[in-house]
Amino acid sequence: MDRRIFIKGMASSVALSSIPQNIKIGSSKKNQKHPNIIFIFCDDLGYGDLGCYGNPVIRTPHLDKLASEGMRFTDFYAASPVCSPSRAGTITGRIPNRTSIYDWIPANSGVYLRIDEVSVTRILKSMGYTTCHSGKWHLNSRFDG
């Protein structure tokens, strides 16, 4: 499958699967609203570490509330067990061999996610979304999605 088709399909499915029932697919552009998308990417978080995934000990009430009101994924694949290549794989749909990011990227290392790389954030931006990033990036010197 072509990578661009994969990324467009992934962005579209996330957007379409969370459309509120009061929004009509065929409505005019003036009345069309996009669903909000919040993607939380955590380092060193296991499948069962949150209450919404069954942890009886660790309390995560705010994340549990978000999960109960939105979409919660139950099947996962990480491109790498390391943060930078895993982030790159998640936003581009590419494996580390395609992004040339194999390990954590320290500041000013000279290894970066290529600026011309197609990402889910850029596709969402082209669909009218406002995108932002907060927290650890470790992919290049700037967030330009």
TrEMBL record:
This is Sulfatase N-terminal domain-containing protein. It holds the Pfam family Sulfatase. It comes from marine sediment metagenome. Keywords: Calcium, Hydrolase, Metal-binding. SUPFAM superfamilies: Alkaline phosphatase-like. Coiled coil: none annotated. Belongs to the sulfatase family. The lineage of its organism: unclassified sequences, metagenomes, ecological metagenomes. Residues 35-140 form the Sulfatase N-terminal domain. GO terms for molecular function: arylsulfatase activity; metal ion binding. InterPro entries: Alkaline_phosphatase_core_sf (IPR017850), Sulfatase (IPR050738), Sulfatase_CS (IPR024607), Sulfatase_N (IPR000917).
